[in-house]
Amino acid sequence: MKKPTPLVDELEKGPWPSFVKEIKKSADGPMASDLLSVLERSYDDKIGHWKHGGLVGVKGYGAGVIGRYNDLAGEFPDAAEFHTIRINPPAGWFYTSDVLRQLCDIWERHGSGLTNFHGATGDAVFLGAKTVELEPLFDELLAAGFDLGGSGSALRTPSCCCGKARCEWACFDTMAVTRELTHVYQDEMHRPAFPYKFKIKASGCPNDCVGAIARSDLSIIGTWRDDIQIDKTGLAKYVAEGKPNIQRDVVERCPTRCMRFAKGQLDIDNDECVRCMHCINALPNALAPGKDRGAMLLVGGKAPILGGALLSSLLVPFIKLEPPYEDIKELLVAIWDLWSEHGKNRERVGEFIQRIGLANFLEQIGLDPQPEMVAHPRTNPYIALHEDKP
Amino acid sequence: MSDVTVEAVADAMYAMVKECHGKRQLKAIDLTKAMAERFGDACDKPLGKEAIRLLIEDERCTYSYIGGSYIVLTPEK
Ligand code: SF4
Ligand code: SF4
Predict the structure, then answer these.
(1) pLDDT (tens digit per residue) in A45-69
(2) Ligand 2 site: residues with CB under 6 angstroms?
(3) Least confidently predicted of A107-121, A259-273, A361-375
(4) Cα A361 from chain centre
(5) Which residue's alpha carbon is at the smallest distance from atom 4 of ligand 1?
(6) CATH number of the domain at A159-225+294-373, please?
(7) Which DSSP category does A74 fall into?
(8) Strand bridging mode A200-203 / A159-160
(9) According to the model, what pLDDT value does residue A378 have?
(10) How many CB atoms lie within 10 A of CB B13?
(11) CATH code that applies to domain A49-143
(12) SS3 A221
């Protein structure tokens, strides 16, 4: 470390992981050292010293590099430019250790060596590049088979859970859909043309391990149409062990109370099941999603960066999701066309829908309203009646 | 329908970016909408996209991020 950082060092205390500890492992390099010194100054001055944005990137792309500059460049020259690079990861975040070493070697040649695997966007993130290093870094990444991810008012790098690669609950091939959408929409990802960011995340089942429903503009979440599968042998084992307490911990916690447990038998009224996954998670050796699997599509989620947080709303209750995924592509293009035409600057799709109304939105993108789209019933008795057209 | 080349659209876009420089920030959609008005049906969205790509790749314009992604003149080196 070039300078002492007593305030920042406080964050190394305690049993929990510390980003300071991790950055210090790289602080024999001047960039990481200046990075911590800028942070120390921010704690002293009680203001942030970072600016972001501007004209920085690689040739031909308008996304993937986020410009970061500190306003104390004279004092901390090695962190004067500290750009963030987003790298599109393999779907499901699978790497071989050789590839990870290769990425790290590339990064040590061109930047601070600090990484974030993975950022909230799902990208592999390299933290701290100087402007002059961007093109050579990009060339090496391309040669290694990697490309930049999305940033700014663009399609963000689609991401997904590991799906069928590792998880028996996966109701569709999350990695295949994500890979396909990533390849088809390269232009939307690298050349920002939307009112604001647009995120696509795919979870293989309603456990939603990638947190799609709370963060993405289009959530693709696995579900099934038929009955939950019950393995009687597996169920008998749970009953014999008495763990979990099936009545108390499973049946009584079913959100729609659609299960009955008596004399060692479990009955599920599947018409009332909302596919919440609770019983399947609690009895994984006895229950499984049905066999007629696919996905539901939801729209409009976002984290609270501008305005408040929004959870996604259901748009398509069930879709089989089979290659080449034309139905989802058609829907995406319809949404993008409408939102690009009428969305305000920095208005996410969810906010756009709230502004124009779900009914208008559905009409414009050519979807019929469905009962599943109702988030909660009205509490007042007002009913709008329209005369049937002859 | 008259034929409009991608180069002609890119040139018209470039003129617009130049004219708005320092006065108004332009997003990709502003440019494609303006071109659709100017060239009519002959300039559809894919052609508009292609023209923007050309502008960026020949480095007449670049993307900037200032609370949103905009298309601006490439600063002189
Ligand atoms: S979201 Fe479902 S399918 Fe995907 S990893 Fe989690 S539990 Fe498995
Ligand atoms: S998945 Fe959820 S709603 Fe369906 S039966 Fe199990 S606990 Fe009940």
Answers:
(1) 999 999 987 888 999 999 999 999 9
(2) A 254-256, 258-259, 268, 273-279
(3) A361-375
(4) 23
(5) A204
(6) 3.30.413.10
(7) T
(8) parallel
(9) 63
(10) 26
(11) 3.30.70.2500
(12) strand
**Main-chain dihedrals φ then ψ at residue A229, nearest 5 degrees:** -80, 135
Q: Do B68 and A63 touch (CB under 8 A)?
A: no
Q: How many CA atoms lie within 13 A of A165 on its CB side?
A: 15
* Of the partner residues B27, B56, B72, the one whose CB lies closest to the CB of residue A60: B56
Ligand 2 atom nearest the C-alpha of A278 is 7
pTM of this prediction? 0.92
| Ligand 1 centroid from CA A252, angstroms | 24
Architecture in CATH of B6-73: Orthogonal Bundle (1.10)
Q: Which of 309-368 (A) contact B at CB < 8 A?
A: 337, 340-341, 345-346
pLDDT at B1: 47
Model pLDDT for residues A117-169, shown as the tens digit of each residue? 998 889 999 999 999 999 999 999 999 999 999 999 999 999 999 999 999 99
Tell me, yes or no, if B73 comes closer than 8 A to chain A by beta carbon: no
Model ipTM? Answer: 0.89
In chain A, what residues touch B72 (CB-CB under 8 Å)?
Answer: 55
